[in-house]
Amino acid sequence: MDGQLIALQARLQHHFSDPRLLARALTHRSFCADHNERLEFLGDSVLNLAVAALLYQRLDTLPEGDLSRVRANLVKQETLHQLAVTLGLPDVIRLGEGETRSGGSKRPSILADALEALIGAVHLDAGYLAAEALVHRLFIEVDIKPTMAATAKDPKTELQEWLQGRKMKLPIYRVAATLGAAHKQTFDVECEIVELGAVERGIGASRRAGEQAAAAAMLLALKSKVKQ
Predict the structure, then answer these.
(1) Exposed (0-12), middle (13-18) or buried (19+): which is 112, by Cβ within 10 Å?
(2) Which end of the chain has fewer CB atoms < 10 Å from its terminal CB, N or C?
(3) What's the domain range around 170?
(4) How many domains does the chain have?
(5) What are phi and psi of 174, to 5 degrees?
């Protein structure tokens, strides 16, 4: 195995039983068809659950709404990008020629997605507890405090709280289409609230940005109906 990947596993404190999972987690769709987007999907869910458990333990006096806002602060692209850089992912991410030329190894969305894919890969390689332990190690140096809840809500968090306040299920997000060349894609994302039969769409430079745009469109539609 490449020396850089061995060093990365040492930083992760996880040695992969299946090295193919590690390689896939570090592969952008511009490099080849065996890329990391499915692992990213899985890792996103594992990350949210692991961070929720961490906050439940550390911030045992905060109510649910504030815990959701702190979690949103921790799993946002900016935070994940910083963690990815600390791990050295820019040096090991596999990109196509066009994406490499356009500076993809430094792009926050690509690095944040790769970190989520790594979490998903650890989950498949060794189970949830190993992935949860990795997430907790990643955030060990992050100053987690209740005041994070005062940060302005992002659209996904605001929509989640709007629905939970009305005892409704969380929205479903799905990528409806990807547009543009592999090194400069935009993501067309749907946000669906099944109980309301409502669907809105948003476009962003990453899946995460597309979800936020779709959530913002859904919030606007819901608030407009309330005013009518």
Answers:
(1) buried
(2) C
(3) 153-228
(4) 2
(5) -145, 145
Handedness of CA 87, 90, 94, 99 (dihedral sign): positive
Query: pLDDT: is 137 or 150 the higher one?
Result: 137
Give the type of residue at 205: A
Active site residue 44: yes
What is the per-residue pLDDT for 1? 57
Q: For tokens 């140096």, name the residue.
A: 141
CB-based burial of residue 100 (10 Å sphere; 0-12 exposed, 13-18 middle, 19+ buried)? middle
The residue assigned the tokens 């949830």 is 128
- Catalytic-labelled residue, pool 40, 99, 113, 116: 116
Q: Assess whether 200 carries a catalytic annotation.
A: no
119 bridge partner residues: none
Q: What is this structure's pTM?
A: 0.72
The reply to whether 118 and 165 lie within a common domain is no
Mean pLDDT of 193-202: 94
Q: Rounded to whole angstroms, how far apart are CA atoms 189 and 193?
A: 13
- What the block records as the tokens of 88 is 């050295």
188 and 81 in one domain?
A: no
